Write the structure tokens for this entry.
Amino acid sequence: MHLGIFGGIAIVATFGLLPSYFWDVWMARAAAFWVRRARPGLSIYYDNGCGFCFKMVHILRRFLLLSKKTLIAPSRVDAKIERLMNEKNSWVVVDKDGNQHFGFDGFAEVFGYSPLFFWVRAIFRLPGIRTFGQWCYKETANNRLLVCLPEKTEVTKKRGFRKFAYISGSIVIAFLTLYVVAWNIGDAGKRILPYNMNWIAWSTRLDQNFNMFAPTPLTEDGWYVIPAHLKDGTKIDLFKDGPMLTGTTLFPVSYEKPAHVADGYPDQRWQKYLMNIAEADNNQYRLGYGQYLCRTWNASHTGDQSLVTFDIVFMMEKTPVPGAPYINPEPITLWEHHCF
């Protein structure tokens, strides 16, 4: 079996089922690991009383995994820093050597102290990016009063509302969990949800199904044979050369099952495409594949070896129920094509 990236996707998808405790513990350990490797000596000063500035510098510290020794303080702690901030209309970033950085250059310097994103500093210092960054910072600084809130806002937390929100959220989650279970039981053939409750699944996109292997696996499979006639009357099997026709060998027509059917497809995408056009609902896509075969073959074969006609035949092989005799494959002609 050649499943392509399906296995990797399935593994990644299961990560979402891990409990929050797992992520809390391992993300904390990962962050601590990188923070210990961050460069110390950086100081960041932000505008007094600006809640937006306060939040942004702390977001940068967390996101960039800056050292715990990084100083983050309002400008009022140092009269010289406050004077520079008013003159430059900018935050002040001081590196370990005491050099001061303003505006977008401060961002570049802060990134340089990150153990993961230090390489971004070189990008931010490129002439075009630096000019654009300085303009963005200037516009933000000039209009920051539109979004600035007090650095500390007293918010009365009502315990009654928090308790109500917690209980309500738990009830909704419990209901949706039971709803999904009932929905999946319906997929298995025993519907227990009334039809007038389908809107819940449709509006929340919980209308998923898991019938790839259950309640029964696929019982129909097969392989392709494409008997074709060349201009000189030679009869060959186009599919033996692969669905992309990359080879040059002329293979005789054979309806026998290949030793490894999956080897006939160059990758999982071709396999999925060809298995899909074998379905009756996708018959409108067979013309396109037929035209592709004509165009590709005749681009490298001219004269008497030009492709004239062919049939796309799918050898349907059904899996019998346990104990039943083997069912001989049934040839199904999906498409008849004329290149000229």
